[in-house]
Design goal:
The radius of gyration is 14 Å and the shape is elongated. It starts with a helix and ends in a 5-residue tail after the last helix. The chain is of the alpha+beta class and about 90 residues long.
């Protein structure tokens, strides 16, 4: 799911206040891609409805910087289709 940057900053502040130090960021989830790709712009161009929204590359840099200033490490996860659907093939 996509959460706006204001909500992400609030989440990171809350994590810091409760001494949580790792944000496991699902950058691809529910058959959608949530991070801007300069090489493959169509990955985010068609996101609408409940799948709408994505992070720009600058958003990700800002998120990592904001998290780091609060002692939080951002660990991105990029699922591939076989993993995200649980398909053993």
């Amino acid at each position: 799911r996509f959460f706006p940057m204001d909500l992400m900053r609030n989440l990171l502040d809350t994590m810091a206040a409760t001494k949580l130090n790792v944000l496991h960021l699902h950058a691809s989830d529910r058959c959608r891609w949530s991070v801007e790709s300069k090489l493959f712009p169509n990955l985010t161009a068609s996101l609408t409805g409940m799948h709408a929204g994505h992070y720009t590359q600058q958003d990700i840099k800002d998120m990592i910087s904001y998290a780091g200033a609060r002692g939080i490490r951002v660990v991105p996860e990029f699922d591939v289709p076989g993993h995200s659907t649980g398909d053993p093939d």
